[in-house]
Amino acid sequence: MAVATPETAVEALQRVFGYETFRGDQAAIIQNVIDGGDTVVLMPTGGGKSLCYQIPSLVRRGTGIVISPLIALMQDQVDALTAVGVRAAFLNSTQDAAERARVENAYLGGQLDLLYVAPERLSNEATKRFLARGEIALFAIDEAHCVSQWGHDFRPDYLALSELAERWPDAPRIALTATATEATHAEITERLGMQQAKHFVASFDRPNIRYRIENKGEVRKQLLSLIKGEHPTDSGIVYALSRNTVEKTAQFLADNGLKALPYHAGLDSRLRAATQSRFLREDGIIIVATIAFGMGIDKPDVRFVAHVDLPKSVEGYYQETGRAGRDGLPSTAWLAYGLQDVVQQRRMIDESPGDLAHRRRLSAHLDAMLALCETVHCRRVNLLGYFGQESTPCGNCDTCLEPPESWDGTVAAQKLLSTVVRLQRERNQRFGAGQLIDILRGKVTDRVTQLNHQSLSTWGIGQDLSDQQWRGVVRQLLAQGLLAVNDDGYGTLVITEASGEVLAGRHPVSMRREAERAARSVRSSG
Ligand code: ADP
Ligand code: ZN
């Protein structure tokens, strides 16, 4: 009997996965791993990271150990591989003893191509001793950004993965992530000891996704008008921050004749699984979810991703919007945000447990997100720039298609800031946006009368702008760091160091005019 020559990577691609050719850097990445080299892969969601470790695991001797935090998805991943004849299994806390023993025996007997393991298991010495008794083809560290304390998804168990290289110097390691700031990249390299690795950084551009960010008015109506107007029969995902908003939004869409289903961690796990599988199998399902939904879900024809609350970071926004249009066809990423989002998130940061450095990090994440929202330039240039990638205006985002007008908001900013200053200095009072705007517009409310705010020198000096325009002014001042939310838990507003420059007339303030746009989309839904 002739000795079979080992299968090549391309042969495995065609035979097992039924694809003709590799995409992008896949071939070079896979070759490097097969040759035993360490590899770091930064590739956007949908770029095809899985094959980068699956194929080397098939070609190299032994079992590919895949470290993944997405325990809920391991079963699906293993099922999909088993269906195409790959010998795959997983070890995680959801298994009973008998099942675990079966998987362990298969591994020790050399009968597995791929073994998925949760990171917390690998920080356990018993697991490492067990793995040492079998033959390891490679280690794949999926969602490698979880090792980054600067990132938005830090998992302490990932820190222990640095030991793999010492213990198994001959097993190549491949670290993969769809998060790609330079800081995260540097941290992955350092913490996982990947200095000698080859690095592959794919373009993060998703040209088929049209980015749109608008002002939050009656957000459910805005959302409904987007879906009915542009995606009436499409599959989509709507993200909200709280379970309550998820429930209400799903109900509202369902009441308006759409197939919308809620999804959040408070729902029964069987119901969640059923919702997820309907989304994958049926056409035109809209999932309204907290961020708990979507990680690792491979549905190529999600036509829109909508955010009804401001995401906490650009990384999160990019990952979530990245679930749209994996098939390369035109798709929409839509976000509505308003003043309340900024106030609420500042408050959440102030109240968050953890040290000052941690709160500063959260704050920096929020600032970057706000800068994306308030930019008068191309959204994509801003987004890719955040990931260290230079580009030119895309022609496929709201600011490219309908360039926002900017206006000189210096005087408006001065009116508002001096109201804040006067209340603070003359009365030792602090207020949220609502009361400040009432004062500027000279509205005689009970509260105004009670507090005698008519006697302030800024009373009624802001009648040239509407309530909504004033809210836009407040929001943009917050985004530009010219106003801050006080950390008293009430969302009152205070001036910052930079505010002084505006009041002194040394810092002109340019603002984005966008109220019209939001108003229009609300009207067209009526
Ligand atoms: P990621 O993990 O980077 O988000 P996946 O590995 O899930 O991406 O791949 C996204 C989709 O692209 C999957 O449906 C996958 O089967 C498909 N895919 C990956 N590589 C290729 C290829 N070379 N040719 C065709 N389809 C591919
Ligand atoms: Zn653009």
TrEMBL record:
Lineage per the UniProt record: Bacteria, Bacillati, Actinomycetota, Actinomycetes, Micrococcales
UniProt protein name: DNA helicase RecQ
Reactions catalysed: Couples ATP hydrolysis with the unwinding of duplex DNA by translocating in the 3'-5' direction
Stored Pfam families: DEAD (PF00270), Helicase_C (PF00271), HRDC (PF00570), RecQ_Zn_bind (PF16124), RQC (PF09382)
Superkingdom, taxonomy of origin: Bacteria
Domain spans labelled Helicase ATP-binding: 30-198
Helicase C-terminal domain: residues covered: 219-370
Membership in a protein family: Belongs to the helicase family. RecQ subfamily.
EC code(s) of this entry: 5.6.2.4
Entry keywords, A to Z: ATP-binding, DNA damage, DNA recombination, DNA repair, DNA-binding, Helicase, Hydrolase, Isomerase, Metal-binding, Nucleotide-binding, Zinc
Gene Ontology molecular function, alphabetical: helicase activity
Essential cofactor(s): Mg(2+); Zn(2+)
Disordered: annotated segments: 509-526
Keyword Metal-binding: yes
Protein species of origin: Agreia bicolorata
